[in-house]
Amino acid sequence: MVQDLDMMKKVYANFKSNVDSARKLLGRPMTFTEKILYAHLKPANGGQGTELKIFGRGQDYVDFFPDRVAMQDATAQMALLQFMSAGIPKVAVPSTVHCDHLIQAEINAATDLATANRDNAEVYEFLANVSRKYGIGFWKPGAGIIHQVVLENYAFPGGMMIGTDSHTPNAGGLGMIAIGVGGADAVDVMAGIPWELKFPKLIGVKLTGKLKGWSSPKDVILKLAGILTVKGGTGAIVEYFGAGTESLSCTGKGTICNMGAEIGATTSLFPYDSRMSDYLKKTERTEIAKMADGVADCLKADVEVEKNPEKFYDQVITIDLDTLEPHINGPFTPDLATPISEFAKAVKQNGWPEKLSAALIGSCTNSSYEDIDRVTAVAKQALGQGAKAKCEFLITPGSEQVRATIERDGQLGVLSQMGANVMANACGPCIGQWKRHGALEKNSIITSFNRNFTARNDGNPKTHAFVASPETVIGFALTGDLSIDFTKEPITNDKGEKIMLQPPKGLDLPDKGFVKDEHGYIEPEKDGSKVSVSINPQSDRLQALNPFSAPNVNSDFMGLRLLIKAKGKCTTDHISMAGSWLKFRGHLDNISNNLLIGAINSFNGEPNKVKNQTSGTHGAVPATARDYKAKGIGWIVVGEENYGEGSSREHAALEPRHLGGKAIIVKSFARIHETNLKKQGMLPLIFATPADYEKIREDDTFALNPKDLAPGKQLTLTVKHTDGKTEEILLNHTFNDQQIGWFKAGSALNLIAASSKK
């Protein structure tokens, strides 16, 4: 049965007329992105929406009505706690919860899943009961990774979705605008409130030619990350076009869109084509394919756009698939891109560990049937020539549907023979849920994941993590050595003989169809009013939320102290670590004990060691924040470029708010984090002159006047140094009138709760 078919029928019934109206207004051809955005100015079920007008890219805030919401278990806890506190009886749009983040990889799939069900029973029960009560679909632990399950069951061409995970754009592989957000944004949409987004700029990526040899869809985004860097896509949607798109499978397109999060893009998407139609039919959604076929001309950029892309996109990049090499990105950042022909040299020049300690295939980015089938093709070659993996080798299927299908079709058996350990259908090591034994020393791993920030995968800052395609990962697993280019050089088999590997070929879809997951999904109650949801006050995993207080703009922002001046990269992993901290995602006070413990203090070059200005002693960041809060002292954080890049986790915004923070002042923000801070009543502010970052001293005292907060109007930070000198620093912000309302109310949720009681 196709999920939410009635909703999609309504979207498609109005899609063409909405696009035609927008094209008439604009008076020009339209990109695919623009068609979807303009088609979602009103809710699918009718009703009032945003007035149709020409919106300025990167300028105008626009209210959109997404078709659905998806949440993973780690972020769903806080999102649903917020939804419960708003007093709304049922979600207004189709929504789902997916239990994929809390399963730790250690031994094998069965053992690890049993451990997760035991250790997380309280959280899983809470999520299941909230889902049943409020009309939310619930996917049980082991059913699969959220983005793979969404692609298999919910994504549809021309649709619009938000998800509480930064890799929600994976659904762009099925021609959907899917955007990662914080939990408070999800609450808006589930409450039936329009969702606000600054109208994005558009980056057009033209694909020509066809992939050859060892190159794969993953190499497209690895190369693009090297071109645009981790912040090059900020405030923009990446739209792929050109003849090259048609040569890529639907799941291959999903891989590319998924990792678009690593360039800071709002989302990424591909035009609808026959490969998407094939995928919909294989996943038993022929009805959707037929509806999409009926408006196919609307599900891609207009012909004139493809002919003259420079006229319609803010930036155009061309990638020739014919000449694209496999790429390896890293270590420590996903945008350090090196083609394989230059990688061995880079390894030696940079002193990266040549010996490979582990190779990992999976994650939401690369765990499709096609990925596993191509990897299996390499494994069969190797086994036939007497070679097996020369390092630890882990496989993580993307969903139970994929796992059961590759078990039936024999791929799992082949990979096990080669030495692979198959883990649970979950995020696992990609998000730090890897109970790795040993490997505390400096070492290298290679993964088919998306991120490789310091210590992200295994908690070890000495681990050099490299990101590549699944085909490249298994190639290096067979060499055990990063200095060997297996695409051109022979590798050594288990007998010491030299053998050559040939480029793999594989199926993107199973000939016999997919094996459906019949047990992973639980429907919500039709009437959830009798379902009770309880939270144990003594729990260390879950905590009911108390609303944040509205600020006193006359007194709360005087006499502020500096909590930390962060140096260099400060991602959401630095601000609110994952890994072992994931278990506290439903307990705001407990998880706040990881606030900024990974950030580097610019004054001493150390993490989690800052000066307490009232005692003169040095201590942990969270403890210092708690001390300031107990003494009624507000504080600020100062940071550098692209502050808050990475995950959509709103805990990185909730924690500073909970511990008494008033403002985060940086050179620039990542989009999702800036919005999350605004939603929670914080002040995300930007140095008007980036060099003013250097003026901030450890013992300074600060004052702000948010009473003057207005759209487009700068704020002034008054800085008092201990030598008696005072100076004023101008700060920019991106608040609009509605967002200023969030700030004055104490949070966006406070406004929702107030309106629901009227």
Automatic annotation (TrEMBL):
The keyword Cytoplasm does not apply. Keywords: Iron, Iron-sulfur, Lyase, Metal-binding, Transit peptide, Tricarboxylic acid cycle. Residues 34-480 form the Aconitase/3-isopropylmalate dehydratase large subunit alpha/beta/alpha domain. Residues 562-688 form the Aconitase A/isopropylmalate dehydratase small subunit swivel domain. GO terms for molecular function: 4 iron, 4 sulfur cluster binding; aconitate hydratase activity; metal ion binding. GO terms for biological process: tricarboxylic acid cycle. NCBIfam families: aconitase_mito (TIGR01340), PRK07229.1 (NF005558). This is Aconitate hydratase A. It comes from Fluviispira multicolorata. The lineage of its organism: Bacteria, Pseudomonadati, Bdellovibrionota, Oligoflexia, Silvanigrellales.
